[in-house]
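A favour between colleagues. Tell me how you read the following sequence-structure pair.

===
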Amino acid sequence: MRATEPSAGPARIAFVAILGCCAPFVAPALAREEPVPTELEGVGIDQRLDAQLPLDLSFVDEDGKHVTVRDYFADGRPVLLNLVYYECPMLCSLVLNGLVASLREVDLEPGEDFHIVSVSIDPTESPTLARSKKQSYVRTYGKEGAAEGWRFLTGEREAIAELADSVGFRYRYLEDEDEYAHGAVTFVVTPEGRTSRYLFGVKHDPRTMRLSLVEAAEGKIGSPLDKILLYCYRYDSEEGRYAPVAMRIMRAGGAATALVVGVFLVGYWRREAAHKRVA
């Protein structure tokens, strides 16, 4: 466990964690009004939609096995990616707990419909620590397939930095506190390894989580209703959720009305024809 200098204290750590969580939203405003706090200089998240992840980067999983990023995209499923670290005193736990809380309300199965990959940004953390964290979160998640569908990785500094840079995740090591300042985000990645959505914050609306996965998979998972919802809803990056699109809903409603009327008319005409034959 890291030793933190007394001057840092829980309040200072909480300050850094909370600001790190809010950095994607408040950094522009802070830049206009006052200097960015020293702890957050260089910290942020740059949305790089459709950016390609470096699939050949090497990491070590929770079992001590050497793997590549490509291994988690071999079966054509979307991936939820987190960049965290396992001894984080606050924010990372909030991110992972929030992810579990959202996914428990989503009717999709880890390992079958999608994968989760959590990567430590701290190159000193070990597979043993990663395994301990995995056991805890898999138990809390409580869904079949979570043990196979959720991987906790550790790696070398260069590989971590390259992966983080590919998705625009800017973090900073605070030497005095022996902690990392970073933002709170879950990356939704397509089966080809391209960024599809950035879900900011520590808790996500289950519908947004589900539709993000369905959209990333290009409709290959989920139900027919999900495809209809994707037609009627569009992702609002500022709100961080899917919002209804009025014109699309009107079109979908009009099509549904036309279908109902058509079915009614066909039934009516058939009854009329049968009545005339009897007469």
Observations:
- The chain is about 45% helix and 20% strand.
- Helices lie at 9-33, 91-103, 127-141, 146-149, 157-166, 206-216, 224-232, 246-278.
- The longest strand covers residues 79-84.
